[in-house]
Amino acid sequence: MSDATTGSGAGVNRVMITLSIMLATIMQALDGTIANVALPHMQGSLSASQDQITWVLTSFIVAVAIATPLTGWLCDRYGQKNIFLLSVAGFTGASVLCGISGSLAQIVIARLLQGVFGAALVPLSQAVLLDINPREKHGSAMAVWGMGVMVGPILGPTLGGWLTDSYNWRWVFFINVPVGAMAFYGIWRYIKHVPGPRRMNFDMFGFASLSLAIGALQMLLDRGEQNDWFSSLETWIELIVMVASFSYFLVHTMFTPVNKSFVDYHLFKNANYVTGLLFIFIVGMVLFATRALMPTMLQTLMGYSAKTTGLVTAPSGLGTMFAMMVVGRLVGKVDLRLLLGVGFAITAFSLWQMTAYSLTIAQQDIVWPGVIQGLGLGLVFVPLSTATFATLAPHMRAQGTAMYSLIRNIGSSIGISLVQTLLVRNTQIAHASLTEQVTIANPALFDPALAAFYNLDSGAGFLNSEVTRQASMIAYLDDYWLMLCLTLLVIPMLLLIRPPKKESAPSIDHAAME
What are the DSSP calls for 251-307, one per residue? Predict the structure, then answer.
């Protein structure tokens, strides 16, 4: 048995391993959103159109989605430590390539490489934390992991805006170099190498069909709004490819022996794991959809600067961190379903507060619902991760965590596409409805206090602008109502979760260095 398990060095090794892998996790989580605010600067520097520059984001998202399912097989083949080191080194190197890119094609290729190498970082960090901690400490371990995964996307736009304004957009990528170097050294120094068991053969047909399905889904979601969805031939092609590829993958997996299949179907015989996938899909939709709505609402409707937007939205991350630190100590002592129920209820309450937003709200009216939502999501994330993997065999963790991350990312992609589509359509509907009231027959237009601003002859431009702002605000509120309903609907499903048995399990510290 290693010193990490029994000796005095156990705590030190666990601390150093945790710090190292969380640096890698935060680095990858930040890069999903840190480049968003720098896109206008990249557009001018790389001579790209507004449509073309979005490929900087899309290429990364698609590459991560396709490469994530490979994590389980790669670890089985080459060992967890080797894949972790390769992922960190490749991601850091690709970040340098992004920073020195001189054309759109170069940065898109570099972002693809970033996505391919970075796909394994989040699921591997989760698997390692579960491995190096005994079962009774899994709640605290998932709290640490969750802080990196959830706080990264929240702080990304703020950090990206500061780097872009203070230096230039290239530092959005160069910032990864020192972080990646520290993570690489820590993983190399403190994680013990364990050869891959090589239980699985590489299933080329399974991987190709699943990758094609995921890629087609991501393309459909990313380009659907731009192509006016199903009025476009491209959208129909992507839908057909996705359905056909995924159907083939399901049939192929069911009739292929486990040791030759790309995905071990025994994962989906575990009720807690499957229920956890469903819940993390909903959490991904609610969390990232809300995060995508708030900055655009504040900047386009209320005139907030990027810096002010970051300042009023960042406190939600503090709420998340506080909740995770508290709930990490409660896991194992309080029924997981109760913690999840409280978390979803708090999240629903924050969304209910957001449905009362208006164009005249003060900054504190934005900060506090965000903090409350952060508390709720923090209470959900840790027990959910703990419950999902509580009954999963240790040798299935690498593949299980990869699928967990994939489902969360797909949920966030679907959620963002859904709310953005509804935002555009509901704005048009609300605009048409409000415009019907703006007629010469409406006595409100002749109110002396309003006549100077809403005169149909001289103030038509201002009037139309105000109607558009009000219509957009109504559409944002409709999206918040949708997120509220989704959150409330998922609460009764908590009864599907079976709390893990209270038993003293030995620590599985094969990842800790001797």
Answer: HHHHTS-GGG-SS-GGGGG-HHHHHHHHHHHHHHHHHHHHHHHHHHHHHHHS---HH
3-class secondary-structure state, position 506: coil
Calculate what percentage of the chain has a pLDDT beyond 70.
Answer: 82
Cα angle: 252, vertex 75, 112; to 5 degrees: 80
Q: Give the CA radius of gyration of the chain.
A: 24
Residues 178 and 21 sit within 8 Å (Cβ to Cβ): no
C-beta separation of 379 from 339 below 8 A? yes
**By CB neighbour count within 10 A (0-12 exposed, 13-18 middle, 19+ buried), where does 6 fall?**
exposed
pLDDT: which is higher, 238 or 30:
238
Tokens representing 324? 């995770």
Residues across the chain: 514
Spatial CB neighbours of 492, under 8 Å, sequence gap ≥ 6: none
DSSP label at residue 512: B
Element (H, E) at 434: helix 397-435
Task: Note the pTM of the prediction, 2 decimals.
Answer: 0.71
Q: Which of 37-41, 351-355, 403-407 has the lowest mean pLDDT?
A: 37-41
Q: How far is CA 203 from the centre of its chain?
A: 28
Spatial distance between the Cα atoms of 343 and 380, rounded to a whole number of angstroms: 5
Burial (CB < 10 A; 0-12, 13-18, 19+), residue 32, is buried
Confidence band, pLDDT 50/70/90 cuts, at residue 178: very high
Among residues 2, 397, 22, the alpha carbon closest in space to that of 187 is found at: 22
Q: How far apart are CA 400 and CA 392, in angstroms?
A: 8
Backbone angles phi, psi at 196, to 5 degrees: -65, 140
What residues contact residue 161 under an 8 Å CB cut-off, 6+ apart?
37, 38, 306, 307, 310
